[in-house]
Amino acid sequence: MPELQIQRHDDLLTITLNTHTSTVPWSEISLPHKQMWSQIYQDAAAYGQRLFAHITHNDALRAALLALRP
After folding, report:
1. Contact by Cβ (8 Å): 22, 57
2. What gap in Å lies between CA 65 and CA 69, rounded to an integer?
3. CB-based burial of residue 15 (10 Å sphere; 0-12 exposed, 13-18 middle, 19+ buried)?
4. What sign has the CA pseudo-torsion 7, 45, 67, 54?
5. pTM score, two decimals?
6. In 3-state terms, what secondary structure has residue 5?
7. Tens-digit pLDDT string for the chain (70 aa)
8. CB–CB of 24/57 below 8 Å?
9. CA angle 61, 58, 67 (to 5 degrees)
């Protein structure tokens, strides 16, 4: 089974699956401000989809993650 690695180094978050890697500044995905919490509570799935799309801006990584089956 492939191993998903998520590592934070200083201000960078790196997501790696096999040979696919995506790096995003931590400041872009850290906890949302107070006004956004109610939006997350009302529609957590939409927030999760936006977060997933943001951290997997590498199309090959996104495709590899979406192809995983339990």
Report:
1. yes
2. 9
3. buried
4. negative
5. 0.72
6. strand
7. 788 999 999 999 999 999 999 999 988 876 667 777 888 888 989 888 888 888 888 899 989 998 988 7
8. yes
9. 25
